[in-house]
Amino acid sequence: AEEIKAFKPAEKTKDWEKEGVPYAALCATFEKIESTTKRLEILSYTSKFFRTVIAASPGSLLQVVYLTINRIAPDYEGVELGIGEGLLIKAISEATGRSIAQVKQDYQETGDLGTVAQRSKGMQPTMFKPKPLTVPSVFSNLKEIATTSGQSSQAKKIGIIKKLLSSCQGNEAKYLIRSLEGKLRIRLAEKTVLTALAQAVVASEADKKGKIAKTEDIVQGEDTLKTVFSNLPSYDIIVPELLNNGVNGLGDRCTLTPGVPLKPMLAKPTKAITEVLDRFENQKFTCEYKYDGERAQIHLTPDGKSKVYSRNSEDMSGRYPDIVSRLERVVNDATKSFVLDCEAVAWDIQEKKILPFQVLSTRKRKDVQEADVKIKVCVFAFDLLYLNGESLLTKSLSERRTKMHEAFQEVEGEFLFAKWMDGQSIEEIQFFLDESVKDSCEGLMVKMLEGPESGYEPSKRSRNWLKIKKDYLAGVGDSLDLVVLGAYHGRGKRTNVYGAFLLGCYNPEAEQWESICKVGTGFSEEDLENHHKVLKEHVIVKPKGYYSVADSGPNKPDVWFEPRVVWELLTADLSLSPTYKAAIGMVNAEKGISLRFPRYLRVRDDKKPEEATTSEQVAEMYRAQASTQKASGGGAGGV
Ligand code: ATP
Q1: Ligand 1 within 6 A of 584 CB?
Q2: H or E element, residue 238
Q3: Does ligand 1 lie within 6 Å of residue 418's CB atom?
Q4: pLDDT attached to residue 228
Q5: Proportion of the chain above pLDDT 70, given as a percent
Q6: Fewest CB atoms within 10 A around its CB: which of 58, 236, 291, 599?
Q7: How far is the CA of 281 from the centre of ligand 1 (A)?
Q8: Which GO biological process entries does UniProt record here (predicted)?
Q9: How many CA atoms lie within 13 A of 369 on its CB side?
Q10: What is the pLDDT of residues 63-107, one digit of tens each?
Q11: Ligand 1 atom 1: residue of nearest CA
């Protein structure tokens, strides 16, 4: 709060509205953020900068926010940065007059192309001072680079990057190149950006009235913005609304809207039916089949446009034209707009039954023509979040379910409601679990059915949704989704591929991936060949600051990778480890947690590396295991 009071925009910002926010000012903020690991300092630098922008050039705030989170458009628009290294090396070389070999060598040494670009620029004699870069110009150039496609697009992109680089001064080249790579990596989590934005807006509102913002208003503003953003994750809508009308009442003005996908609600793992019963003691709950396919959030806007979004809010309508076209058969006449939460599952038309996830994963990912679809899918709908102009998020699950059943009709093999059972006894649940497995499902989802706790909580892994998987007895209750950090060269039959891999979980607070295990089992020969092909594109020289790993000792991998690939693994149990870094400091001050007898299950290309199992989840699993072991006097816990 002290920091917030002490604000006064500097004299030099008076031209920002006319000229645009200088890119240098943004980069100076990035540099400060990068120089500390303290979350509160990071937050304060960010909110102070946002506040300056609001005072001096509010029209640039949206672009500033996007550049800060290293994006240029919402996820669902599919406009992405992530320019390849080769192209950037070429642009740096041409812009600074250094040979490609020299640039590559520097890159080998530093491991960061941004730093290489800044240094290379520093070696160039400067004839005249270039016109300073501004946030609007950098933003529009980045957008142009990201959207340029087709013939000679490479040359066009290099041309724009060279022009930008030639205008860079000081540290701008470093952050420009990192932004282009899609790897700003200044350890600024999006959650912090939202908090900073709320603080800045509340403080600026007080500034305008010549008052000092009250701490309670700031806290309230942070809560409001967090909730609003999880219901309507669109800076394009929220930022202008904040600037025009402030944070008060934002929740009434910005609500769930078909066409803007929201991050789905997630479940917590459980190991036993008794654990489920303990959690829902004296509460009404329901069990549903847990289908093993791909999450699909289906939207229909009032103007009749339908879209299918992934769990990452990517637009999958091009991938599932069959789902889009069948909607008119399953939507009742009175249903004019909706947001529906579903699982798309591979379907055997002859046998009329569910096929395993592996079959679905062979379906083509990019734009397909409906006539070419080989793998048929059936949609299993389990929740309705919006209907005919009304958000249903705070309604009870039983009410949402009733409305869902009224608004849609089932069509066999195309659109069905998730099977459910409202029995509350252990026997009924056990029976339903067995049935779900017989029907080729992964197990059950058990959900709070009545009361305020049964509302839909976007983007939250909530204890109001629990999952029981069929193989929960064999393992730690759940599989883990981990990022491939490195690999070990294969031997014998595996000489041409990687033979084993180093995996890591994600720590969102530190913005780091922490090593958790080495895995070499569960792979078919074909898996290993595919993994080799994909991973060799992501080799890096050495582990970077966003890895918490041991860079020496027996577990040091032969090659390191960019954090790109997510795999699902099973494990027998978890143990404390002096070598692995996962969740270090969470259950033991010096030791991390590692997986015992890990086994590869499948690729999770529906998850980004930042959506891997978190260190906190790993710690939670370890604690749960420790308590069941204690309760049963050793051995793994059971029903
Ligand atoms: P995993 O899919 O490995 O269990 P996850 O992190 O993808 O993990 P969880 O919250 O753990 O997601 O599990 C819920 C997932 O199960 C949902 O994302 C959804 O795709 C799928 N699912 C299948 N059936 C249902 C259902 N009836 N209700 C909710 N989710 C379901």
Answers
A1: no
A2: helix 235-245
A3: yes
A4: 97
A5: 96
A6: 236
A7: 23
A8: cell division; DNA biosynthetic process; DNA recombination; DNA repair; Okazaki fragment processing involved in mitotic DNA replication
A9: 2
A10: 999 999 999 999 899 898 889 889 999 999 999 999 999 999 999
A11: 479
